[in-house]
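Changelog note: in this version the structure field was regenerated for every chain. One regenerated record is shown below for reference.
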Amino acid sequence: MVSRSRPLATVRAMAPPRSVFAFLVVATACATAPPATDASDLRPFFAAHGLPPRAQGPRPTCSIFTTVAAFEFAVAKVAGTGTRFSVEYANWAANAANGRADDGDFFHFATSGHERFGICRDELWPYAAAFDAKAVPAPDALVDGGRHLAAVAPRLHVRWIRPNDGKPGLDDAQFADVLRTLAAGWPVAAGSGHSRLLVGYRADPAAAGGGTFFTLDSALGAFAEVPAAFVRNDLYDAFVVEEASGAAAR
């Protein structure tokens, strides 16, 4: 506020030039502008942290692989180092938390399994060629899962972009949320007849739906691509594992 006792000439002399105000406006706009959503690619992050795609083999575990890959990425981002987690443990946890005995399951069962039992390192329960409904984690795997649950899980947050209501398709707001989430540096778990992790996007007028999504695909054990039309029209659910609010300050 300008002091009434200060001479007007002095006030004018102290006022910064218009160019300074213009610079401040532009700088503020740049600092607050959201990231561009027409191009993103998280594949180099997976490679840099030792987290290449893994293959599920003949087992129907694509949703479990996708969920584990989402947690692996998030942990690497908040902790600064890549850790391979056990798909077998995540599969057991999804069943144990929900009273089921399935090989592979829906995202909401897999995430609730993590919420209750955490997840252990892959070497403590490697992925098996065949499913054993009676298999349970060894004590050291359970301890490791508990440590993750206590030390790491509080730094993460599962956010549903599109909960599964039995009907396919994203609305405009949900599709835009997927693009913003990828642009902000977080992959999106995408559920359909086959689950994949969306790990990037490229605008492409020639592609169906106007763009192409990069995916981490456990059926292929590789990165792949799907058209934007598939993401908009064929997904039943989508979620992201991201840093919990306030976790960076801990």
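Spot check on this record: The chain has one domain: 39-249. The chain has nine helices and seven strands.
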